[in-house]
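Anyone able to model this chain together with adenosine monophosphate?
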Amino acid sequence: MTAIATLGSHCALQVLKGAKDEGLKTILVCEKNREKLYRRFSFIDTMILVDSFLEILDPKCTRILEKNNAVLIPHGTLIAQMNTKQIESITTPVFGNKWILKWESDRHLKEKLMHRAGLDVPESLRTPDEIKKLTIAKRHGAAGGKGYFLTTSKNDYIKKRNHLIRAGLIKGDRDLYLQEYVMGVLAYLQYFYSPLNETLEFFGADKRHESDIEGLARIPAQQQFPDYISSFNVIGNSPMVLRESLLSEVYDMGERFVEASKKLVKPGMNGPFCIEGTYDQNGKFWAFEFSARIVAGTNIYMDGSPYSTLLYDVPMSMGRRMACEVKLAIKQKKLDKITT
Ligand code: AMP
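re: yes, here you go
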């Protein structure tokens, strides 16, 4: 029997519940300090207790995964806690494309892929000297928005950058990526691409609640503190439904992204992914980011989303969708087509 395995964080509950709903075995690689939390859920069949998620590379862990024919579902915690080399050296079959995760972590590769997909991407700046208008400084990797800041001049940038260096969050300019700030309605578009039946499914959209930029927006400008450095640390997500007239462009963007990925990083963007950006005042979507794996924003749709309801007659979470794909691949003897 095949098992679905993942790391105990991010969207592990959704992923393993979905796998269990599809009758698959479930394995959680769990840090010891979170054992109590995850023991509460009966759909977790096996726990591999570790001190650090890096132990997923150790033979002790890989042997158990191998014995259970496990497929590993990568998520944001895997990317945040392991570097590209470590991720690429995972011997357990990884759902989707583990090679594309490098393109998610590196802002410059990321930009290249988004441009190739024909997405409108906010302009990036090569050096702080180019800061002329409202600019966002972002850290590389899946930092979850922590330590990001807004700035409008080089002097202000240097002050805030130095603050982050003192706080130990970055080492210097090289750790920051500067991008034009686009004002509007933020939307995180969740997709699933199946290489088995070559179809793209739009699964849902969500909003992110980020602290403390969200809190700052509730304070009138006169009461705000001029030297305050806000952050974009994600605290949670809530559902969003788009105007129906926006949907055909949503599908077009997703399809172009899948096509571009096939060309730039084989075997392409298989499985779940997310295109993240802002709708401006003209309803134009500016993509500032993508995630090349399941995003935590899908956790709000454990029982299915308004869009998955249009495609499936059973409550279909992204976790369950991946389990369905694994089952189909096993039936068709094509597991190698959906894992790397
Ligand atoms: P990211 O790591 O690129 O997902 O960015 C984290 C958060 O920063 C996003 O959820 C947005 O709130 C904000 N953000 C990032 N880039 C931009 C941008 N170019 N314009 C406006 N907001 C942005």
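The radius of gyration is 20 Å.
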